[in-house]
């Protein structure tokens, strides 16, 4: 008979298996790409006399097998924490039960990783010429959930193309402005996916070139750099530089560097760019201006004076030789016309008699002597004009261009007034066959030039003009304080003007 004091035990069913039963794997229901998740592998078994451990097969994180023994449960557990990527979607995760190195049992689950669409862009052709067509295709590598019927958009250099909403982008008759970086965007329930950028390069020949000068104007002896600017794709591989319309030999780079600039480099520069598609054209030229010192002017004056002196010496010796030859011819004529104790002289002028004589030297020498005679007359005008302009430019450049033009016009006017009539007398004498009677008067105008030139050069100096005005003022008004004379150098140093006072 059973009483309340009796003790009862529940029946226990013992199952004996030939192979160990598999572990249980717990996977979160919602797995997002790039977010931490924890997988749990659990085995309802623990025996300290028979050690086991659990191992994961997806990746290689640290694994831990923790045997747990309680009154209610006896189990061994291992956890795997990691960040799944979109590439882990659909992969299998396996948890194995091992004793030493022997696999006793295992269990496998498949990952369902939610992620945005993974995209790639294909371009055909990779290089496109200006005016051709190009096609870009946006391919979906992976998407969970799928992208069917969702929005597709194209972006160029950060700006969305409003008219393009399909997976294929076709550009017709491309221009250079269509070059840039493109990518596509596709969205699903997780969010928008973006492809990597691809660069579209439109090839074209160099555009008309421009020349930039850094930093004008240049001072004599300094270094200066000129840059040829011409848009092209691919970049220009060869450049041709021009100085005053003539090619600069040996310069084929984008930059033209002049290490020691001088007056020889003054002028207009242009360039042409060239790549494998063709050669460009010249658009904008640049003028290089050089500021030079008075020492440079002195050297140029000395060179000009040396040239004129050489021409004058050559003309002098030519005239001397010609006179000697004429004298010998006249003496020979007198001897031939003498008879017995008497001789006669023909009724001709000496000039006419000598003019009928033959030229003893080769004919080219005659042209040389004539050139030597007239070259100084015509060269002096240009030399004086260049000297006047150069002298003022060296002192006041780049200011006062009107004054320079006035000085140049005055010099040319004096040249034409002083030398024009005398040169005209040669033309009149050649046409009439005799020297005009007024030649001696116009010759006086030529000699007057030697008196006018010094005044022109002196009065081109503002300092001389100021001193001359002060001199006239003292002569007309007597001794007064000189308030106009200012030393620019002392004014720059001390910031004050100095006045000269008349002696008491």
Helices and strands in order, then pairings?
Elements: E1 24-26, E2 31-32, E3 37-43, E4 53-56, E5 66-69, E6 74-82, E7 92-99, E8 102-110, E9 113-124, E10 127-129, E11 134-144, E12 152-156, E13 159-161, E14 168-171, E15 180-187, E16 192-194, E17 198-203, E18 209-214, E19 218-219, E20 224-229, E21 238-243, E22 246-247, E23 255-258, E24 267-275, E25 278-279, E26 282-284, E27 286-288, E28 290-291, H1 294-337, E29 338-339, E30 342-343, H2 350-355, H3 363-396, H4 401-432, H5 439-459, H6 462-477, H7 488-494
Parallel strand pairs: 2-9, 10-17, 18-26, 19-28
Antiparallel strand pairs: 1-3, 3-6, 4-7, 5-6, 7-8, 9-11, 11-14, 12-13, 12-15, 15-16, 15-17, 18-20, 20-23, 21-22, 21-24, 24-25, 24-27, 29-30
Transmembrane segments: 301-319, 353-372, 378-397, 404-422, 442-460
Main location: membrane
Organism: Cricetulus griseus
Keywords:
disordered C terminus, Immunoglobulin-like, 504 residues, CD80_C2-set, five-stranded antiparallel beta sheet, 4 domains, alpha+beta, 30 strands, six-stranded mixed beta sheet
Q: Briefly, what is this?
A:
This protein has helices at 294-337, 350-355, 363-396, 401-432, 439-459, 462-477, 488-494; strands at residues 24-26, 31-32, 37-43, 53-56, 66-69, 74-82, 92-99, 102-110, 113-124, 127-129, 134-144, 152-156, 159-161, 168-171, 180-187, 192-194, 198-203, 209-214, 218-219, 224-229, 238-243, 246-247, 255-258, 267-275, 278-279, 282-284, 286-288, 290-291, 338-339, 342-343. The chain is an alpha+beta fold. The protein folds into four domains: 24-111, Sandwich (Immunoglobulin-like), CATH 2.60.40.10; 115-203, Immunoglobulins (Immunoglobulin-like, Sandwich); 209-291, Immunoglobulins (Immunoglobulin-like), CATH 2.60.40; 295-329 and 350-463.
């Amino acid at each position: 008979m059973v009483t309340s004091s009796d003790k009862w035990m529940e029946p226990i069913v013992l199952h004996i298996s030939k192979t160990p039963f598999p572990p249980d794997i717990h996977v979160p229901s919602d797995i997002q790409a790039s977010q931490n998740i924890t997988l749990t592998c659990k085995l309802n078994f623990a025996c300290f006399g028979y050690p086991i451990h659990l191992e994961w097969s997806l990746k290689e994180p640290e694994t831990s097998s923790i045997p747990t023994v309680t009154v209610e449960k006896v189990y061994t557990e291992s956890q795997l924490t990691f960040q799944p990527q979109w590439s882990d979607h659909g992969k299998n995760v396996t948890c194995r039960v091992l004793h030493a190195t022997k696999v006793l049992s295992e269990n496998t689950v498949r990952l369902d990783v939610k992620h945005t669409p993974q995209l790639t862009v294909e371009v055909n052709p990779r290089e496109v010429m200006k005016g051709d067509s190009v096609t870009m295709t946006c391919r979906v590598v992976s998407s969970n959930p799928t992208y069917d019927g969702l929005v597709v958009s194209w972006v160029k250099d950060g700006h969305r193309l409003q008219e393009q909403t399909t997976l294929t982008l076709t550009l017709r008759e491309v221009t250079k402005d269509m070059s840039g970086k493109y990518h596509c965007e596709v969205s699903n329930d997780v969010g928008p996916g973006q492809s990597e950028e691809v660069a579209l390069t439109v090839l074209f020949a160099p555009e008309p070139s421009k020349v930039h000068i850094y930093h004008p104007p240049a001072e004599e002896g300094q270094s200066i750099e000129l840059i040829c600017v011409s848009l092209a794709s691919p970049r220009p591989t060869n450049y041709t530089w021009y100085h005053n319309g003539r090619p600069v030999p040996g310069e084929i780079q984008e930059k033209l560097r002049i290490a020691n600039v001088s007056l020889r480099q003054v002028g207009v520069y242009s360039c042409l760019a060239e790549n494998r598609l063709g050669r460009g054209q010249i658009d904008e030229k640049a003028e290089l201006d050089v500021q030079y010192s008075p020492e440079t002017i002195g050297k140029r004056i000395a060179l000009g004076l040396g040239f004129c002196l050489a021409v004058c010496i050559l003309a002098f010796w030519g005239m001397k030789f010609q006179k000697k030859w004429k004298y010998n011819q006249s003496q020979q004529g007198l001897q031939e016309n003498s008879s017995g104790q008497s001789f006669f002289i023909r009724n001709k002028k000496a000039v006419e008699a000598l003019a009928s004589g033959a030229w003893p030297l080769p004919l080219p020498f005659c042209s040389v002597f004539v050139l030597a005679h007239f070259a100084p007359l015509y060269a002096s005008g240009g030399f004086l004009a260049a000297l006047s302009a150069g002298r003022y430019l060296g002192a006041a450049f780049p200011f006062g261009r009107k004054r320079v033009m006035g000085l140049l016009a005055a010099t040319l006017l004096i040249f034409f007034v002083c030398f024009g009539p005398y040169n005209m007398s040669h033309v009149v004498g050649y046409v009439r066959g005799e020297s005009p009677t007024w030649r001696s008067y116009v010759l006086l105008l030529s000699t007057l030039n030697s008196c006018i030139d010094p005044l022109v050069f002196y009065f081109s100096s503002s300092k001389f003009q100021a001193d001359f005005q002060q001199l006239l003022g003292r002569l007309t008004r007597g001794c007064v304080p000189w308030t106009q004379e200012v030393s620019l150098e002392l004014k720059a140093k001390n910031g004050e003007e100095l006045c000269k006072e008349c002696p008491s």
